[in-house]
Design goal:
This protein is an all-alpha fold. Helix content is 80%, strand content 0%. The protein has 4 helices and no strands. Helix 1 packs across helix 3, helix 1 crosses helix 4 and helix 2 crosses helix 4. The chain is globular.
């Protein structure tokens, strides 16, 4: 290998290493963004379910023939629009379903073990009343 080719090879290797380091060093930032978006999404759904369990928010159908079904569907559409306006469409549909179920499980367990007066329950209820409930008035 000529001295020029050898030097070019080392420069290519260095450039590749710099590019790889830049790529890997930016990856955690995206992961943190994903985590923040998912946490916000979880909080919104914790808030909705807390309002259902603790305050009787009429957001769940009581059965197949529930006369409020259309009103409940419209409410959920408005809530979904408000949530999407806040977090965008960064979470896949499958992941959203998983997070919704996680939020329901967490709130159900929190109510069972600590009650609706728990500070965490009050925190998510505040999110419901300040950020989500206004979407139901539209």
């Amino acid at each position: 290998m000529t001295p020029f080719a050898s030097r070019l090879s080392r420069l290519s290797l260095q450039a590749g290493l710099v590019a790889a380091m830049a790529l890997f060093s930016s990856a955690p930032i995206r992961a943190d963004d994903d985590t923040a978006v998912e946490t916000e999404y979880l909080d919104y759904h914790r808030a909705i379910y807390a309002a259902v369990l603790c305050q009787g928010a009429g957001l769940e159908q009581k059965g197949i023939g529930d006369p409020s079904a259309q009103q409940i569907q419209t409410a959920h559409e408005n809530l979904a629009q408000a949530i999407s306006a806040s977090i965008g469409e960064e979470i896949s549909a499958g992941r959203r379903l998983t997070l919704i179920e996680q939020a329901k499980t967490e709130i159900r367990e929190l109510k069972k073990t600590k009650s609706c007066d728990d500070p965490e329950m009050k925190r998510v209820l505040d999110i419901y009343h300040t950020e989500l409930e206004p979407a139901l008035q539209e």
